[in-house]
Amino acid sequence: MASPSSTSSLKTAYPWIKLPLITSAPMRLISNAALATTVSLAHGIGFIGAGSDISSLSEELSKARDLLSTSPTLQTKYNDTLPIGIGFLLWGAPLTETLTILSKPENTPAAVWLFAPQTSSQLKEWSQGIRTVTSQKTKIWIQVTSVHEALEATKTASPDVLVIQGTDAGGHGAAQGAGITSLVPETIDAVTSLCNNNPSIPLPAFIATGGISDGRAIASALALGAQGTCLGTRFLAAHESAIAPGYRNAVIAISDGGRTTIRSSVYDTLRGTTSWPSGYGGRGVLNASFRDHQAGMADEDNKRLYEEAVASGGDEGWEGERARLTTYAGTGVGLVKRVESARDITVGLRGEAKGVLRRLADLASTM
Amino acid sequence: MASPSSTSSLKTAYPWIKLPLITSAPMRLISNAALATTVSLAHGIGFIGAGSDISSLSEELSKARDLLSTSPTLQTKYNDTLPIGIGFLLWGAPLTETLTILSKPENTPAAVWLFAPQTSSQLKEWSQGIRTVTSQKTKIWIQVTSVHEALEATKTASPDVLVIQGTDAGGHGAAQGAGITSLVPETIDAVTSLCNNNPSIPLPAFIATGGISDGRAIASALALGAQGTCLGTRFLAAHESAIAPGYRNAVIAISDGGRTTIRSSVYDTLRGTTSWPSGYGGRGVLNASFRDHQAGMADEDNKRLYEEAVASGGDEGWEGERARLTTYAGTGVGLVKRVESARDITVGLRGEAKGVLRRLADLASTM
Fold this sequence. Notes:
The structure is a homodimer.
Chain A: H1 7-13, E1 21-24, H2 33-41, E2 45-51, H3 57-69, E3 82-89, H4 95-102, E4 109-115, H5 120-133, E5 139-144, H6 147-157, E6 161-165, E7 171-174, H7 180-197, E8 205-209, H8 215-224, E9 228-231, H9 233-236, H10 245-253, H11 257-260, E10 261-264, H12 266-271, E11 280-285, H13 288-294, H14 299-312, H15 342-365
Parallel strand pairs in A: 1-2, 1-9, 2-3, 3-4, 4-5, 5-6, 6-8, 8-9
Antiparallel strand pairs in A: 7-11, 10-11
């Protein structure tokens, strides 16, 4: 199986994309067919966030086919696949049922994105299973949060793409980690060395994610050696994403994400998503729930207050000193200033990034 | 006073530099005259780390003058200043005595770097005092760790340079923060907007620091909008730095900094440097002291074990499961592979970064 090892080979694997490659993260519950297909129709790669629950996946894929079929510019199929991806959380998603869905030719996605296995053998089982049922048409993307994980995943599953997630990312990631500034170059060096020393392991492509919210950060990721980028928080503000209005308003309003967001497991405790393997935490806006947790409030009391806030509905639960609802967001949240269509976000980011690359080219010519 | 607001104006303010600008951080106890002058002689800007204690500053400046005077290529003085900088920790360094030293014409540095004030009025007092005693020859650099701090510092002290420190940095920084990927662009936007709306506040230049260990990261910082970069951890491995051999060996040996380092206040507790204002922590290699602290060991017991490790001397205190000595380092520590002269580091990084910029220029031409 050919593995995209350079930027140009990404275009071979995903023929509809324009460079620099922008992908939208498979955010659980939020990244639906509308968001994923709009990003792909704008010549990025959109991912549906199946997460740990595939009960609505067939329906989302049906919606995705409908949305893609209306496009005059994009073919419904490239390389016999739908031009979108699907993200799975391996600690919860059921492999057998997933393979049944993916094995139907009309469902075959261009890529799957695997994250958070309970054991590294799960990475192997999922990769092999999906490659088998899709006759290797579906590319395997694996999200990693450290150099160690990247080496393990590459040895175990020979991914087509490694998504290197820095700790600035919103939502779930390693409880402790580095930003992409150091993580991306060190990971690329280590994985490249591994593959050079083991010719049976093809060199994956590298996608950077975590803290990327604008064209400057996209260009910076390319400087770090990544061949493409993935954004989550920026797409929270897309019209198409499935997100409560209060949550979306909070994303627009909040700035200075290093001060206003924090990575913690408390939000999982409140929401009852407690099946994550150890070593993960979710970055969200620092709110009353977190402060009470820090101050020693018992989880059951904190959870009761959280559930009261959910039950009271309305948007006041998301913002301000007394906010209790979970606003997962990365440190780049302060660069998200308005609600736009995912198409405008994707096209706009690509234009911004190209502008930055041209500025750097001018700068280089003076040095 | 002219303020460098573009990359080319950095060359006006610091005429000996070559681009892209590489500076070495004023690491307390480590960044001495030898390190600072070697970086400047290699056409970067080296900073002496006076920190909170200026008792040896006059002696270090005397050494710096001697080292600079031996250079056939660099003048001892540019714009009537020594072509180096000095870093101060405002919570501890005495202003009056510092001004006495800096007011001597032979001591006037090209730049001072101010960090960690107890109150923001300290930033104003130090900036005004130094500008007055050096007849505005010494440029004011202020290190900030958030958008909020950047706006406050700019309003308060009109710095010539803002050093924007991401949380990947080694040693002290904000206990909670963002990496440069999001922090640098958001800070530049916010400060630029502030200065545009207040013509009396000159736009500072922006230097990125935190997690930058190689030429890829330097180029990425320029993509983010910074006009120059600062590296600390990489210069720990310089022959010239004042660092214990065991510490330096650990820096070379350790990889995967997101997993192996952590930002904490425990290292300050152990070392007795407890005068830092609240809200700061030091990133260092995760060791037995940290694990014992996390497991609930009383500070006095932990400190006793630390002091025993110091007293026992030798290099075994720095590495391995039982290491107790503090190895401050950023997440970029895994990209530091060998001990070199600060000259080779500086020249090598500049060459690497230019290579990355040329690669990006080629890439841009294909898009």
